[in-house]
Amino acid sequence: MHVVILGNGIAGITAARTLRKRDASVRITVVSGESDHHFSRPALMYVYMGHMRYRDTVPYEPGFWTKNRIELVRGWVVRIHADAHELEMDGGGRLAYDRLLIATGSVPNRFGWPGQDLDRVHGMYSVQDLLALERATPGIRTGVVVGGGLIGIELAEMLHSRGRHAILLVREDSYWRNVLPREESDMVNRAIRAHGIELRLSTELASIEDDGRGGAGAVQTATGDRIEAQFVGLTAGVRPNTTVVEASGIDIARGVRVDEQLRTSAPDVWAAGDCAHVHPSV
Question: CA-CA distance, 277 to 241, in Å (whole number)?
């Protein structure tokens, strides 16, 4: 029996370790294009700020893969061939499975803003985002961060820690107003500003301007204001990562559709974690 787990996050690794504890003979393969190990995503903030090293994000002891007899395949899957029980890899090869668990997590939202694909426009979610941020921010003066959630305030703090002018655009009239009572939200507003971050409330992004060289040069707000910025961070929430599944004929709703046993519409395929949406009728 060969079980392949697509995704190296907490759901995928928990499934792999649990499966190994229950069955000493099953062959387990984890496929990951992002990293060699799973990690706490907020830790990437502290790597950028110099408070910890990337290697310190490894959550388990050396020899984890060997000890648990789990094979790690580094690469991106471009298509699931459910009928053939195979994964098509970005390098052109194929990986056969008997059972498949999709645990691809979530990805940042993109809302079709003009200019969102320019250089120096990034989210802050993955290792690849961290590397892109390291390349994009050394020469900038101002960074605009779009989104009034936890990732947004973290990214603004990251820019501020390196001496950049950080501007946080929040659509609501107060930070995290949909979660916090008014008094507490106002207190957070004051703390953000006191910390040196420019907070603009009731402000929505309309578009991102090209600097003439294919990179971000400014943002336009929905009210017509223009803010010069050499970096734009898009942190307007996340959505289930179903990109690979969409091309594979497996049912999708607000995520990969699964039943109470996490089975998808395809035979011998399950899904778990942020990418999955439980729907009893599957």
Answer: 11
The contacts of residue 106 (CB under 8 Å, 6+ apart) are: 125, 238, 239, 240, 241, 274, 275
Q: What pTM value is reported for the model?
A: 0.86
Alpha helices in the chain (DSSP H): 10-22, 43-48, 64-67, 127-136, 150-161, 182-194, 243-246
What is the distance between the alpha carbons of residues 188 and 141, in angstroms, rounded to a whole number?
25
Query: For the chain, what's the residue count?
Result: 282
Q: Which residue is listed with tokens 């006191």?
A: 194
CATH 3.40.720.10 fits 2-105+241-278, yes or no: no
Show the CA angle centred on residue 178, arms to residues 175 and 180, nearest 5°: 70
Selection from 178, 193, 183 nearest residue 148 by Cα: 178
The tokens describing 3, both together, are 């079980």
What distance in Å separates the CA atoms of residue 180 and residue 177, rounded to the nearest whole number?
5
The 10s digit of each residue's pLDDT in 167-176 is: 999 999 999 8
**Dist. CA 3–CA 33, nearest whole Å:** 18
Q: Are 99 and 86 in contact (CB under 8 A)?
A: no
- Each residue's pLDDT tens digit, 177-212: 888 999 999 999 999 999 999 999 999 999 999 999
What does the domain layout of the chain look like in residue ranges?
A: 2-105+241-278, 110-236
Domain 110-236: homologous superfamily in CATH: FAD/NAD(P)-binding domain (3.50.50.60)
Question: How far does the chain reach from its first CA to its final CA, in angstroms?
Answer: 25
